[in-house]
Write a structure and sequence with these properties.
CATH topology of the largest domain: Rossmann fold
Number of helices: 12
Protein name: Glycosyltransferase family 4 protein
CATH class of the largest domain: Alpha Beta
Number of strands: 13
Helix content: 25-40%
Distance between the termini: 26 Å
CATH superfamily of the largest domain: Glycogen Phosphorylase B
Structural class: alpha/beta
Oligomer: single chain
Largest sheet: 7 strands, parallel
Order of helices and strands: EHEEHEEHEHEEHEHEHEHEHEHHH
């Protein structure tokens, strides 16, 4: 099957540091190639893939040091090129939310759009209602709820390459981990409180976006003075397995309708149990007592930290292998590609 994967240009594929959508696209593109498909990846310059790469811009938008740049202009050029080459592919798989809709209205039946973000935003229902001929894929069933009547073709959980992560033979287990982004909805303040109350070190590996700089400086930086708290900054893919694998548990104390939460399955791939708030996709991702523990408040989280050591790290990894490997994700998408093609075939008289 000839498949085009279209990625946002904000980060390379995979990202050098933080980045969810582009990291999923990276794992998907390689897994599809490994399964024998002819895959072309449209992505930012600096991307690395086993697919045929069509790069745009010299580098990803976030890493471009130019003080003035146009996200919209870059993505419009990307859309134009994909449209020009559309007839080369059986399926056009977009990871761009809805930017491509006006360009591909006449061939919507050959497109698939994976929704990676939250859907409870003003104006989204009207837009997706306007272009309701485009088949959509959710990354959790929880993600769909604000737009339950949209044109959902299927649900595919995110996956990562199992070969990139392993369960350490002797994990230190001496600290708790927080990995992701410093933002109010991610609740690093909760993670800090939990670690201090549990009497365990917390290592925070996270990026700070410009929009969250004031929150970091005003709310989080003062908390970093505590001797149990260490701010590591962003970690790359080479550093991530050791950071997650040697942790006693990953803290995922979110306060928003998380569509998926890639860091949870990255921790599971390292055999590290996840302690997560009952919010967003968490109940779909974490198997209580198997891959982690789900909590509703800080008291339960502190207790979960004590209980996490009883979880067999081999079972955590087995849960990941069964549900969230890149192979499993690619297989699920191929099934949807076949459904899409079958639906677009002309009726036989």
């Amino acid at each position: 099957m000839k498949i085009a994967l279209v990625s946002p240009l904000c980060e390379a594929v995979p990202p050098m540091f933080y980045g969810g959508t582009e990291r999923v696209v990276a794992h998907l593109s390689n897994a599809l190639v490994d399964q024998g498909h002819d895959v072309t990846l449209f992505a930012a310059g600096g991307s690395c893939t086993r697919a045929t790469l069509v790069p745009f811009r010299q580098q990803a938008l976030r890493l471009d040091p130019a003080p003035l740049k146009s996200d919209l202009a870059a993505h419009l050029v990307l859309m134009s090129e994909v449209r020009r080459r559309a007839d080369e592919f059986d399926v056009l798989h977009f990871h761009m939310e809805l930017l491509h809709f006006p360009f591909f209205e006449d061939i919507a039946e050959r497109t698939l759009t994976t929704m990676h973000g939250r859907l409870d935003l003003t104006d989204l229902p009207e837009a997706y209602g306007r272009w309701n001929e485009f088949p959509l894929v959710s990354i959790s069933h929880q993600q769909r709820k604000p737009m339950a009547s949209a044109n959902w073709l299927g649900n595919v959980y995110n996956g990562v390459d199992d070969a990139l992560f392993r369960v350490p033979a002797r994990p230190s287990g001496g600290y708790l981990a927080f990995l992701g982004r410093i933002a109010p909805e991610k609740r690093p303040d909760r993670a800090i409180d939990i670690a201090i109350r549990a009497g365990l070190p917390l290592k925070i590996a996270a990026k700070v976006d410009p929009v969250d700089r004031a929150y970091f400086e005003g709310c989080i930086r003062p908390l970093l003075a505590h001797p149990l708290i260490e701010f590591v900054g962003e970690v790359n893919d080479a550093q991530k397995p050791a950071f997650l694998g040697n942790a006693r548990a990953l803290l995922f104390p979110i306060d928003w309708p998380e569509p998926f939460g890639l860091v949870m399955i990255e921790a599971m791939a390292c055999g590290t149990p996840v302690i997560a708030w009952r919010c967003g996709s968490v109940p779909e991702v974490v198997e209580p007592g198997v891959s982690g523990l789900i909590v509703d408040n800080e008291e339960e989280a502190v207790d979960a930290v004590k209980r996490a050591v009883q979880i067999d790290r081999r079972r955590v990894r087995a849960s990941f292998d069964r549900r969230f490997s890149a192979r499993a994700m690619a297989t699920a998408y191929v099934e949807l590609y076949h459904r899409l093609l079958a639906m677009s075939l002309p009726a036989v008289a």
